[in-house]
Amino acid sequence: MMIIALFMMSCGGNNSDSKTTTGQDKKTEVTDPEAAKGLELVSKSDCFTCHKLSETNIGPPYAAIAEKYKSITPQTMDSMVAQIQNGGYGRWGAVPMTPHPQISRPDAEAMVHYIMSIKKE
Q1: Are 108 and 115 in contact (CB under 8 A)?
Q2: pLDDT tens readout for residues 70-103
Q3: Phi–psi pair at 18, nearest 5 degrees
């Protein structure tokens, strides 16, 4: 029984009120409300399975995505929302991005705000 309790404590505890995330490679404070909502959505999805904040994993790091696109224009927003919802292939290498059609456009836009809030150190 004690093993189960320890397992639950080590895997759980994702506080949705938190505006701080600790990635394996750095800690990021989120102060913009839209970016904070995006962080919450990213944290509840499978995004951190493939993406880290500043290190390459299966997918590109969020800091590299923010650096590549620099700012959120209508075209950037449309492109990134499409990538989140429909998946993609070839922009960042040979590994395809898994589609997430269940994510609404407003939620995907909040996720984009979070990604674009990450700055490379």
Answers
A1: no
A2: 889 999 999 999 999 999 988 888 899 999 999 9
A3: -70, 140
Q: Which residue has the tokens 């995004």?
A: 47
Is residue 105 helix, strand or coil?
helix
Fold that domain 35-121 belongs to in CATH: Cytochrome Bc1 Complex; Chain D, domain 2 (1.10.760)
Q: Yes or no: say if 14 and 41 are a contact pair by the CB < 8 Å rule.
A: no
Per residue in 5-51, pLDDT tens? 332 333 333 333 334 443 444 345 677 899 999 999 999 999 999 99
Q: Which two tokens mark 2?
A: 């004690």
pTM for the whole structure: 0.74
